[in-house]
Amino acid sequence: MDHRPRFPEQELTWTTGIHQVRTRLRFPLRATFHWSARSPLAVGLTFHQVGADDVTWVIGRDLLARGLRTLAGTGEVRIRPTAGPGRTAQVLLRLGAAPPYALFVLDRAQLASWLEKTWAAVPAGTEAERLDWAFFEGLLADRWGA
User: Which of 4-8, 14-18, 90-94 has the lowest mean pLDDT?
Assistant: First the structure.
């Protein structure tokens, strides 16, 4: 019997315009951020490309939040506020470990506002209460032959 507390399922999405940066040129692009209380640690980021299939990356919610204030992330995903006069209203999101990586610019205040809604639904530090531990236990049992 599952004794985990039951929580209302909640999903939040935010579709916004962002810009992909390539050698000082900016190309507009639509992107949708997806978050679910069923998987509160992760944010799906889907890029809607004209004439091509959508591409989705999964990024840690806490990583996005840290990137609003300072450089955050290593490896495949990095995010940071832009530097310089008049640029504090944006963040840079880099996807990919080495060139040619993709670099995007998006609105910092809008991202912060959307993330606040996810924190209101599932506060920081309470995410583990919502994880399906039976799933992970099953994976370990299969792996170790238990």
Answer: 4-8
